[in-house]
Amino acid sequence: MDVETFQRLGLHQSWEDLHPREHLINGRSNVEIDAVLRTHADQQYHPCAEAYLVEPLKGSIEVFNDWHESSVYAATRRKLAVYLPPKDQITSALDLLVCNDGEGYRYNKGAVRAPAVLENLCAAGEINPTAAVFVMPGIPDGAEPVVDGRANPVVKHQRSLEYDACTPAYGEFLLSDVLPFVQRELGIEFTGDPARRTLCGISSGGICAFNAAWHHPGYFARVISHCGSFVNIRGGHNFPYLIRSTPRKPLRVFLQSGALDANIVTGSWPLANQQMAAALDFAGYDYRFEFGVGGHNLRQGGALFAQTLRWLSRGPA
């Protein structure tokens, strides 16, 4: 398709930039995603056994509220949190896990409880000592997360600009802004081995994890995508074709979705993730696809989180 036709059809613009969530087309709207954030089928999924601690966490968690030192996403602030393993385990450069929408992965009563899982797997000798960096989306300066009791559209738009864009920018943000800050501030060192550096996220955070690794495979070679938004928000629906038509990159990819995942104007998440899995298989990638029965949330991903980390950390791809 030529550029003129592409633009005439409006394909160069994001639906969500042009319309509010409530906008109806063919009697349907993007508000329908709210109905699948919790579904009856998710009740069968529970945090993995490794998400539970017999005694308090031995590692430490450092929190940086209103962190505003980004050059890539200037004039924004965000919350960062960092889990570090117990000091006696930090004898060399640490493996790295970066979680987008980080608080959803860090919360100690949530579906994932990543610090506990990392600590239990490390204590069992199943993974190397691993630091986890939990990164929240940016909030533009002057904006508040909630306005009149509802999520601020300006803040949601910023999350989409960071997570849904198919550019190298988010990976550059991690490499030039976040990770150097954490290493400098906490006096630690992350491994430079991309096979020991994992990016993780849910929904738009899931495609963001894949996209950053796609653009920066020499720095991040492991991906966890839960209910990834490989749909037409900002062009992510093109990834299956790109995977099929681009020389294979040294990535190991874990994908998860469910039969009741989102199905809205911008696309079908179940079908999009099946297309991603088919493309990865076609191109010969080392990948794993878990397709369950649940909706658009972390319940199944949390139930499988320890298995996922074990699978990612096994030998070379």
Describe the structure.
The chain is α/β, with parallel strands linked by helices. The chain has helices at residues 3-8, 15-18, 102-106, 114-123, 153-163, 169-186, 204-215, 239-245, 269-282, 299-303, 305-313; strands at residues 60-67, 76-84, 95-100, 130-135, 139-140, 146-147, 150-151, 197-202, 222-226, 252-258, 263-264, 267-268, 286-292. Helix content is 32%, strand content 20%. Strands 1, 2, 3, 4, 5, 8, 9, 10 and 13 form a nine-stranded mixed β-sheet that branches. Helix 6 (169-186) crosses helix 7 and helix 8 packs parallel to helix 9 (269-282). The longest helix has 18 residues, at 169-186. It is globular and about 60 Å long. The two termini are 36 Å apart.
Secondary-structure map:
Blueprint: H1 3-8, H2 15-18, E1 60-67, E2 76-84, E3 95-100, H3 102-106, H4 114-123, E4 130-135, E5 139-140, E6 146-147, E7 150-151, H5 153-163, H6 169-186, E8 197-202, H7 204-215, E9 222-226, H8 239-245, E10 252-258, E11 263-264, E12 267-268, H9 269-282, E13 286-292, H10 299-303, H11 305-313
Parallel strand pairs: 3-4, 3-8, 8-9, 9-10, 10-13
Antiparallel strand pairs: 1-2, 2-4, 2-5, 6-7, 11-12
Helix pairs in contact: 5-7, 6-7, 8-9
